[in-house]
Amino acid sequence: PAGTVPRRRSPRSDMGRGLTLLLLPLALLAAPAQAEGGTAAAEEVKIEVLHLPEVCSPRSKKGDLLNAHYDGFLASDGSKFYCSRTQNEGHPKWFVLGVGQVIKGLDIAMMNMCPGEKRKVIIPPSLAYGQQGYAQGKIPPNATLIFEIELYAVNKGPRSVEAFHQIDKDSDKKLSELEISQYLKEEFARDGKNRHPSVHDEILADIFKKNDHDGDGFISAKEYNVYQHDEL
């Protein structure tokens, strides 16, 4: 859903879906940490369902990997500050729901949503960028945001038990460089994009740099399961 500005640096656009499986935050709209306050608690995200498919399953939940297009507007004047279709060669965005990769309001707005569903959501400042705003994303202080969202896919999240076991071929509860390398190759083959071989090596190195906290050459179940929503 909304991707304007990453909280940290965004990964290269050609890193593909396999990258989201293991670590980097996507180039999505993620807000700086904000203090909890009474105002935030009193405000809510307003959701209008524009289209609901006849078969509405599966429905999204925290930790799921979603694929969506979205447009972002300022409620004050209706001006558009983001359009996912003009980014990354127009590919829909992948992100993990409910773990802070997007602003809190979007994590709330896209819960219980199914593939093919379209929503218009209104997010108050306290669940977006608050009093600070985000100048780089052309979002002023105290801005109410409107997003029009079209959801394409709801998949098991990258930190799920299923995903870990899928990569852990020898079932030793830790992921080796060979296992992750093979998984990336399979993911790249699945999405069908042409990539230079160096992209695979760069992603693999980055995965271990950010996840192998004890430097033993493996990513343990504990190191992998950073979202703490499943038990391995």
UniProtKB/TrEMBL annotation:
<dbReference type="InterPro" id="IPR002048">
    <property type="entry name" value="EF_hand_dom"/>
</dbReference>
<keyword id="KW-0732">Signal</keyword>
<keyword id="KW-0325">Glycoprotein</keyword>
<feature type="signal peptide">
    <location>
        <begin position="1"/>
        <end position="35"/>
    </location>
</feature>
<dbReference type="InterPro" id="IPR011992">
    <property type="entry name" value="EF-hand-dom_pair"/>
</dbReference>
<keyword id="KW-0677">Repeat</keyword>
<dbReference type="InterPro" id="IPR018247">
    <property type="entry name" value="EF_Hand_1_Ca_BS"/>
</dbReference>
<dbReference type="Pfam" id="PF13499">
    <property type="entry name" value="EF-hand_7"/>
</dbReference>
<dbReference type="GO" id="GO:0005509">
    <property type="term" value="F:calcium ion binding"/>
</dbReference>
<dbReference type="InterPro" id="IPR001179">
    <property type="entry name" value="PPIase_FKBP_dom"/>
</dbReference>
<dbReference type="Pfam" id="PF00254">
    <property type="entry name" value="FKBP_C"/>
</dbReference>
<protein>
    <recommendedName>
        <fullName>peptidylprolyl isomerase</fullName>
        <ecNumber>5.2.1.8</ecNumber>
    </recommendedName>
</protein>
<keyword id="KW-0413">Isomerase</keyword>
<feature type="domain" description="PPIase FKBP-type">
    <location>
        <begin position="63"/>
        <end position="155"/>
    </location>
</feature>
<feature type="domain" description="EF-hand">
    <location>
        <begin position="199"/>
        <end position="232"/>
    </location>
</feature>
<dbReference type="InterPro" id="IPR052273">
    <property type="entry name" value="PPIase_FKBP"/>
</dbReference>
<feature type="domain" description="EF-hand">
    <location>
        <begin position="155"/>
        <end position="190"/>
    </location>
</feature>
<keyword id="KW-0106">Calcium</keyword>
<dbReference type="GO" id="GO:0003755">
    <property type="term" value="F:peptidyl-prolyl cis-trans isomerase activity"/>
</dbReference>
<keyword id="KW-0479">Metal-binding</keyword>
<dbReference type="GO" id="GO:0005783">
    <property type="term" value="C:endoplasmic reticulum"/>
</dbReference>
<dbReference type="InterPro" id="IPR046357">
    <property type="entry name" value="PPIase_dom_sf"/>
</dbReference>
<keyword id="KW-0697">Rotamase</keyword>
<keyword id="KW-0256">Endoplasmic reticulum</keyword>
